[in-house]
Amino acid sequence: MSATAKFRENVEGLRRIAWDVAAKVVDPEVPVLTIEDLGVLRDVRIADDGVVEVDITPTYTGCPAMGVFTMDIETELAKAGFGEVRINTVLSPAWTTDWLSEEAREKLRDYGIAPPAGKASRRALFGDDEVTCPRCGSKNTEKVSEFGSTACKALWRCCDCAEPFDYFKCI
Questions:
Q1: pLDDT digits 0-9 by tens, 57-86
Q2: What are the structural domains of the chain?
Q3: How far is CA 101 from CA 62, 96, 97, 106, in A?
Q4: pTM, to two decimals
Q5: Max CA-CA distance within the chain?
Q6: How far apart are CA 124 and CA 146, in angstroms?
Q7: Which residues form the PaaD zinc beta ribbon domain (predicted)?
């Protein structure tokens, strides 16, 4: 194997390690989800100068978690022995709930938050026809407020078990 090939292999190995470290950073608003679960983690590279570059996409413009994500990614990579880290906020393409992994949807349900009911589309802007209660599984639910505990969630109530719950909006 040539020296160049060995160098590339080493860089790719470091990139995978850096990805795995960054991928474990949790969402401060929904601590059962990682930035990888959310689809917020877009790319990790090792630049020619050895800097770890991490691309993240906000779930929506002005998301307050982005500052926490940045700080936590830098902290976790430093703990793992990486030196300088550069965090890039990537706005295009815009994040969509379609980027949530199936595991993320299951984690949301288990945590008591109803995952997005459908695919992101223009129709999603007009509300969801059917949101399933994450507690009892009933489809007999009603929207209480367009805004829940955070701007990306709405407050719903189950008409069968009478429990309120957050619904992660489809965007």
A1: 998 888 889 999 999 999 999 999 999 999
A2: 3-95 (3.30.300.130), 100-168 (no CATH)
A3: 23, 11, 9, 9
A4: 0.84
A5: 67
A6: 13
A7: 121-169
Contact 137, 112 (CB under 8 A): no
The two tokens of residue 163 are: 């429990």
Tokens of 59: 């779930």
User: Encoding tokens for residue 159?
Assistant: 């008409």
- The Cβ of residue 162 has, within 10 Å, a number of other Cβ atoms equal to 10
Contact in structure between 40 and 26 (CB atoms under 8 Å):
no
Burial class (CB in 10 A: 0-12, 13-18, 19+), 65: buried
**pLDDT (tens digit per residue) in 140-160:** 999 999 888 888 899 999 999
